[in-house]
Design goal:
- This protein is an alpha/beta fold and 544 residues long.
- Helices cover 29% and strands 25% of the residues.
- Strands 2-1-11-10-12-13-14-15-16-20-19-18-17 form a 13-stranded mixed β-sheet, with helices on both faces. A seven-stranded mixed β-sheet has the order 7-6-5-3-4-8-9, with helices on both faces. It has a three-stranded mixed β-sheet with strand order 23-24-25.
- Helix 1 packs parallel to helix 8 (237-244).
- The chain is globular.
- Bound molecules: adenosine monophosphate.
- Adenosine monophosphate binds at residues 185, 187, 232, 302-305, 323-328, 332, 358, 417-419, 431, 434, 445.
């Protein structure tokens, strides 16, 4: 027997309509590229989103078109999230830290029609423009007074586009499975792969995190997404915050410790979300000032595991820390380390032990670990296997990429994360290792295989391995361990010059370690596990 309830599509436009009506006083505060602090609220954003959506339509944007953004966290970027998806187009957020090669690949692969760019990133596009489709429209996200002199052809001005339009719009109704957002992950080797979110998955994900991450969500609170809007929907905050009546405080380009401290202190930010590297900077400033920013009580750490000392330092200041584990392919949140109420009065050490884990799954995400043959392992806290996930906000494949899609899911439809983990009997996830051969620096990926391939193309190198070495600020930094082909030992600078075409500067190895041989596994691959053990005492050049 079927239930007898209405079925309305879950659409992103409903989130903003609701927030403007229910939470008119909640603010959206942005540190802007123009250098000032800008304040607005959900009703004003709703009106400007109406103008922007009308402008997109006036420029011929249709349902399904991909509209790219290359921008910091700020109110204009938030407006793009809602205007683009609201009319059924796809908001394709681009990570400005990608290499030139990757950026050229994704703009062409996505077949972007329009690209919205912050003034800061205009030079990046100017340098790559000849590789982009000739009919790509460029819009610079500022007002006329701040428009830069640019070589971009026929660049339009964001504020002028809006000013020409009415704010009146009737949001179209369409199937909730319509694509809403596109984010490429470089979290594997080879070309980046696109996770194509739908209205349904984004709305559900916002609901999932707002019920599970109860430490952050509560009407009237202020949340600071330091995690970029160009990185997996800023972990869902652009949707979940308005839905729950939270104010959004955006840091813009200034993500160093002193700037974050100042903004958080003056705005009395309650909760801040970001990668461990960002919190290193903030903690240094907290130490320098001898106090925490006013009102700061909650921090969500994801992208990489937070070091225990970082968790302890926050907790000692009565700032509650929770890991969020997830992936681009999961919209992204899969688990969260909110302390169970039963542990509220547990000794400090036990609470920190818990907070070091990746926590419990959020409602709507299922987890399993499997062995090498794909057999499901017990959730007993002992067994360690590759982590697979399933849920309504997990990808079912990759955008226009049959090959990657074919490899994404197992026979039962679970997505393989490439993380190696254990799960306790209480359902607590602990990430133990990475099966994917990758280095994560400052929350961004570097493919060790790509680094190795580029290095191997140098005639002086016979064989090599790229591995991540622990770094207190960046989490990991790549180093190259190499066997020389002859007598020549190229310097790090020479290797950089040789490899720079394929990589962004920050992706290049910090050091070359010359060795006579590399440890091998039984199957003839370099054993990175043993290599890391051999280099246990190694210290990166900038830490010596
Ligand atoms: P991305 O798709 O770039 O967001 O990267 C997702 C990957 O980052 C995961 O598969 C993990 O390897 C890693 N990761 C994300 N969050 C955490 C966390 N809280 N602890 C440890 N690793 C994490």
């Amino acid at each position: 027997m079927q239930g007898m309830m209405m079925q309305r599509p879950l659409l992103i436009s409903d989130i903003l309509t609701y927030a403007a009506e229910a939470f008119p006083k909640a603010e959206v505060v942005s540190a802007r590229t123009e250098g000032d602090i800008h304040r607005t609220n959900y009703p004003e954003i709703r009106d400007r989103v109406g103008q922007l959506a009308n402008a997109l339509r006036a420029h011929g944007v249709q349902m399904g078109d991909r509209i790219a953004t290359l921008a910091w966290n700020g109110y204009r970027h938030l407006e793009l999230y809602y205007a683009i998806s609201g009319i059924g187009a796809v908001c394709h957020t681009i990570n400005p830290r990608l290499s030139a090669e990757q950026m050229i690949y994704i703009v062409n692969h996505a077949e972007d029609k329009v690209i919205f760019v912050d003034t800061t990133f205009v030079p990046i596009l100017e340098a790559l423009q000849s590789h982009f489709p000739a009919d790509l429209t460029y819009v610079i996200m500022t007002d006329r007074a701040h428009m830069p002199d640019t070589k971009l052809p026929n660049a339009l001005c964001y504020e002028e586009l809006l000013a020409e339009q009415s704010s009146e719009i009737e949001w179209p109704l369409f199937d909730e499975n319509t694509a809403a957002g596109l984010c490429y992950t470089s979290g594997t080797t080879g070309n980046p792969k696109g996770a194509l979110y739908s209205h349904r998955s984004n709305v559900l994900h916002a609901m999932m995190i707002s019920v599970t991450l109860s430490s952050t969500f509560g009407e009237g609170r202020k949340v600071l997404p330091v995690v970029p809007l160009f990185h997996v929907n800023a972990w869902g905050l652009p949707y979940a915050a308005p839905m729950s009546g939270l104010s959004l405080i955006f840091p813009g380009p200034a993500m160093d410790g002193p700037s974050l401290f100042k903004l958080m202190d003056s705005e009395e930010v309650y909760s801040a979300w970001g990668v461990p590297t960002i919190w290193m900077g903030l903690l240094a400033e907290i130490k320098a000032q001898g106090r925490k920013p006013k009102g700061f009580e909650d921090v969500v750490v994801g992208g990489s595991a937070a070091p225990r000392s970082m968790i302890e330092t926050f907790e000692e200041m009565d700032i509650s820390v929770g890991h969020a584990w997830g992936m681009t392919e999961m919209s992204p949140v899969g688990t969260h380390g909110t302390l169970p109420s039963t542990m509220k009065d547990a000794p400090f050490k036990e609470r920190i032990d818990f907070k070091q884990t990746q926590g419990r799954r959020v409602f709507g995400v299922e987890l399993k670990i499997v062995d090498d043959e794909g057999k499901t392992l017990p959730k007993d806290g002992e067994a360690v296997g590759e982590l697979f996930v399933r849920g309504n906000a997990v990808v079912s494949g990759y955008f226009n990429n049959e090959e990657a899609t074919a490899k994404a899911l197992d026979a039962d439809g679970w997505f393989g994360t490439g993380d190696v983990a254990s799960i306790s009997a209480e359902g607590i996830l602990t990430i133990q290792d990475r099966a994917k051969d990758l280095i994560k620096s400052g929350g961004e990926w570097i493919s060790s295989i790509d680094v190795e391939n580029a290095a191997m193309s140098h005639p002086a190198i016979a064989n090599c391995a790229a591995i991540g070495m622990p770094h207190p600020k960046w989490d990991e930094r790549p180093v190259l361990v190499a066997i020389a082909a002859g007598d020549a030992r190229p310097s790090v600078e020479e290797m950089h010059a040789h490899m720079s075409e394929h990589f962004a500067k920050w992706q290049l190895p910090d050091d070359i370690i010359w060795v006579e041989e590399l440890p091998m596994t039984a199957t003839g691959k370099v054993s990175k596990l043993n290599l890391r053990k051999q280099l246990a005492d190694y210290v990166l050049p900038d830490l010596r």
